[in-house]
Amino acid sequence: MPGKHTEFPSSDFAITSVNVGDRLDQREIDDRKQQDEFSFYTRRNWGSSLRIWARRLAPYIILLGVVAVAGNWLAEERAMLAADRIAQRLSAALSVPVKVQDSRFRTTPAPAMVLTGVDLGGQVRLDEVALEFTAPSLWQSVISGHRRWGDIVISPLTLSFDQAGRLLTWLTTIDRVVPDSVTKVRIAQLRFAGNGLLPDQYEAVARRESNGKFSSVLLRRLASPGSMQVRLTPDGSGGAISFECDAADWRPPYAPHAAWTEMVGSGHVSADAIELERFTLGAAFGAIEGQLAIRRQAQGSAAWSADGHISSVGIDIPSVIQQITKAARPTSGDTSEENAATPIAGTASIEASLAGAGATPEDALGSLIAAGQIKVRSAALNGINLGYAATRPSADSPSSTASTRFTKMDASFVASSTGVMFKNIHAAAGALSTRGEVTVTPELAVDGLLHVDLGGTRVQAPLRLHVRGDVAHPKFGR
Question: Is the dihedral of CA 127, 129, 135, 139 positive or negative?
């Protein structure tokens, strides 16, 4: 029964206000936690995958954009450089009707805009003209909006002199047609049909000058050995074309076919004349200076004539003989013959006029005749003592080790493709005097006659000596 106190009796249980979950509640909490973690990692992995694929695809996306922009730029340039538009611009600049068969872009062997079948007023036809560019220049053009082209390369050409002259005339106006970024126009291989003055293959290059114009063309010989180049500068008013030429280890295509270590010259060329106003030919034996003009003749049997003048003051005669006889020397191991003294020694000065005529300029040059005077300082005739031979007419054949030294020697000469003739030879050594004539054939055979006079008070008939053999080994006999 209840007592006097109102408190409940103590027990093992306590009543609190804290909600303590049971096992089911704890499991529900764990399940929710795992679901939240899975959602977090799922969202993080998806973002990471997106970033990885974005990094992988970024270069391709950029490249696709560049290709799209470049393709759009090339399409605009293709329309700008269409065959009809190019033909119209060329026709206006060159003042002749121009036709362009087709225009296209190529990627190999070098990126370029190519024009095919370019007909310049029916006078010159260019099979292919390539306007080159590079990938960096293409990118700069796309970014800046300004065209940055490379060189213009023209396919191999074969031209006549008239066609070449016409192209040079058009050169002065080509800057109005080609883009400003083009600095060089080049013909890869150029030949001149039916022309013997320039018989080889050449590379022709025209470069833009500081004033923005193409003023000259440089022809560079492609054949070897040796080198040769000619710079041609047309006259904007239609006058003669000026030229400058230089060569090394050069052999002219016309007589004389001697090998020259150096050649420089300058002059003018037109349809009716080639004027080499000044030239210098250098070799191991010395140098020759002169001028030469080839002109078309209005009257006469020959259509072309050539005339000029040459001079020299320091021709070493032994070096000349060694050069012209070098090809005929035996290739044996014995060098005694090579070291032997040449038949004539001394230093010569030459003054001569040139003249020739023919149906073509090549014929006129090939028929050139040089006529003039030659003087020899410190002259010596090796292989014979003329004084000894004159005083002993009955003596045996002259000794090969003998020699005759002269204080004076001069002669007139005529040289052509058929050989050289020395006339009015006059050599003196004290009272001894020698006169005569000697002829040298293209094969270097020698034939002549010398008259030796001792002079003085004693009366004695002059000694007559026949000269035979060749230039390297002349033989003297009575």
Answer: negative
Which structure tokens are listed for 371?
A: 């006529």
pTM of the shown model? 0.73
Tell how far CA 158 is from the center of its chain: 17
In this structure, are residues 423 and 450 in contact, taking their beta carbons and an 8 Å threshold?
no
Which tens digit of pLDDT belongs to each residue from 302-319? 889 999 999 998 899 998
Contact (Cβ atoms closer than 8 angstroms) between residue 456 and residue 434: no
The partner residues of 279 in beta bridges, in order of sequence, read 265, 290
CA nearest neighbour of 231 among 222, 239, 221: 221
Amino acid symbol at 180: D
Query: Residue 473 is encoded by which pair of tokens?
Result: 């080994």
| Measured distance between the N- and C-terminal CA atoms of the chain, rounded to whole angstroms | 188
Tell me the two tokens of residue 149: 């082209």
DSSP class per residue in 161-227: HHHHHHHHHHHTTGGGTS-TT--EEEEEEEEETT-SSS-S-EEEEEEB-TTS-B--EEEEE-SSSSE
| pLDDT one-digit tens code per residue, 141-195 | 555 555 567 788 999 999 988 888 888 888 888 888 887 778 889 998 999 887 7
User: For residue 283, what are the contacts with CB-CB under 8 A and spacing of at least 6?
Assistant: 258, 259, 260, 261, 262, 319, 323
| pLDDT single digits (tens) 371-422 | 999 999 999 998 888 877 777 655 555 555 788 899 999 999 999 888 999 9
In whole angstroms, how far apart are CA 471 and each of 419, 423, 452?
12, 17, 20
Residue 149 neighbours by CB under 8 Å, 6+ apart: 113, 131, 132, 133, 137, 179, 181, 182
What type of residue sits at position 95? S
CA gap 380, 378 in Å, rounded: 7
